[in-house]
Amino acid sequence: MIEGVSNVRETVFNHFVEHYTAPNVVRPRALDLNFRLLPNRERANLVKHFTLDEVKIAVTPGPD
User: Fold this and answer.
1) Contact (Cβ atoms closer than 8 angstroms) between residue 2 and residue 11
2) Does residue 46 fall inside a structural domain?
3) Alpha helices, DSSP H only, in the chain?
4) Residue 46: DSSP 8-state
5) pLDDT tens digits, 8-59
6) Which of 15, 27, 38, 56 is the most exposed place for a label (fewest CB within 10 A)?
7) CA dist., res. 35 & res. 27, Å (int)
8) What distance in Å separates the CA atoms of residue 1 and residue 7, rounded to the nearest whole number?
């Protein structure tokens, strides 16, 4: 049994410290990876405006 405000506080604090402290784990990093790049022509197609017809097709209720 734990008695006293300071003892209860310390016990509760230690309980949560044990449960929520992240372990020291070596995580993989993506700093040294050499990803292939898209050509400028293809990169420009990643962000472009929708046409009204594309929006209508996307929001038109279908059989699903």
Assistant:
1) yes
2) yes
3) 5-20, 40-44, 52-59
4) T
5) 999 999 999 988 887 888 888 888 788 888 999 888 888 888 899 999 988 9
6) 27
7) 19
8) 10
